[in-house]
Amino acid sequence: xxxxxxxxxxxxxxGLLVSFSxxxxxxxxxxxxxxxxxTKVKKSTGVIMKFCQNETFEMSxxxxxxxxxxxxxxxxxxxxxxxxxxxxFKIEEIGTxxxxxxxxxxxxxxxxxxxxxxxxxxxxxxxxxxxxxxxxFVMHNQxxxxxxxxxxxxxxxxxxxxxxxxxVMGEVDEYSNYYKALxxxxxxxxxxxxxxxxxxxxxxxxxxxxxxxxxxxxxxDKQVFDVTExxxxxxxxxxxxxxxxxxxxxxxxxxxxxxxxxxxxGVQFQPNHSHTKAKYxxxxxxxxxxxxxxxxxxxxxxxxxxxxxxxxxGGVLGVNQDYNLNLMVHDGKTDKHETGLxxxxxxxxxxxxxETRTDRYxxxxxxxxxINFTQRGSVKIVLSNIFDGGESVNFTFQVAPEAVVxxxxxxxxxxxxxxxxxxFVGYEHGHYIDYLPGKFFMTTDDSSQSQNKLRVSDGDTxxxxxxxxxxxxxxxxxxxxxIVARALVLDTGVKIGSNPESVFIETPRVSITPSSxx
Length: 518
Description:
Blueprint: H1 2-21, E1 28-29, E2 38-39, E3 48-52, E4 74-80, E5 93-94, E6 101-104, E7 109-113, E8 115-117, E9 124-131, E10 140-142, E11 145-147, E12 156-163, E13 166-174, E14 182-184, E15 190-200, E16 203-212, E17 217-220, E18 224-226, E19 231-236, E20 250-256, E21 263-267, E22 270-271, E23 277-280, E24 283-286, E25 296-299, E26 305-312, E27 314-316, E28 323-331, E29 341-349, E30 352-362, E31 366-371, E32 377-386, E33 391-399, E34 404-406, H2 413-419, E35 432-433, E36 436-443, E37 453-455, E38 461-468, E39 481-490
Parallel strand pairs: 9-14, 18-39, 36-37
Antiparallel strand pairs: 1-2, 3-4, 4-9, 5-8, 6-7, 6-15, 8-9, 10-11, 12-13, 15-16, 17-19, 19-36, 20-21, 20-38, 22-35, 23-24, 25-26, 26-28, 27-34, 28-31, 29-30, 29-32, 32-33, 38-39
């Protein structure tokens, strides 16, 4: 009997020992907690934090970057924290009051940031940090246009309304954490941003990156132009970027030996919005800046243009469902994405013309056409007068009685790398490419600001001048410098034809002071 009791006691002790040895790593025994003896205060180890210059929800696809951000840039933060994936059927958040995520710059410190899981049961959390600059610091001031950064921190969209004869500031529409986890102020010239998270009771995960001003650049696309051909050039200065919903126009002064006063030419950053999917309010939101893998593809009859069509949301088109038809046109030989997209569109249902849309124009080259079909049938979409050149192409597909909504399949990042223009390489940022192309024309008559024409003579030197107000050290933040590029003009008497240039062309708009919340 004594032997049986002894053996029984041994097995009970061994069972308890095994129980403690194989208990989950995120749990600790808390003898002082009463009924709640187990607590998840200490999460599992293996937490990883990355700063990504691209927008991705995959740790393996993160293009890590920790230096030379712009002072109003966007840093996409990914955190792999499997121990915080407590419910495999929910999208969870980290950064609550008990385990704060802090963001610190040379100008500010914030601790109320939350990051959202990229999907149910992923254990990967995403949150963009938007650097906001210094309020009222003038970054650009040409042609009557003054551009200043946000230089402020806010959590939602601010609105101004008139109440009882007075302007009242209000806050509406909280943004999803996928769009903006935090905005934070930064100092001019250079500094550092640090993200710190106390993942475990005694474990702090931290990453830092530097931001800096850089001296602007201006370059002509070639050194000699004939008076009959368009003049193309480009500018670089990531310091000019500010958070806004539309790409803003900056101005450079172009002049010649014959016309020292010259004209102003508008330029814009090139878009670089990544194709990441987000879930907000129970709905998946996808926006692509490259053709989806599921897109319909056709060449124009002469092979000049390769056209892409897809719809969001994806899946089987159905009646009474709101869609966005997405359109892109690439060069037929190089498959290079063309910006400045223009076209007309006709929509047919069962052979009957139901709608015509004319003079469509999209600066970034991605046409987005809202549409809703109220009855089933065969649809034909005709794109005509593409780039005002007369080419056309048509797509046909069916509309079913009931929509089957599926996720649009985005292109793999290798697609972007393989089709990226050489002038973009090394200049990509979270929302934009540090490449601002410009274009103007020459005339031997008087210059014309409204027609974007500069007066020149044979043998003139032409100039593009950009006044850089955001200079790095050892300059002070109050210095400015004229950055100038030069090229030669020849009047050969031979007319040089011009192909459509995929660059932004802007007729200057005087006395515009931008006001933006993003």
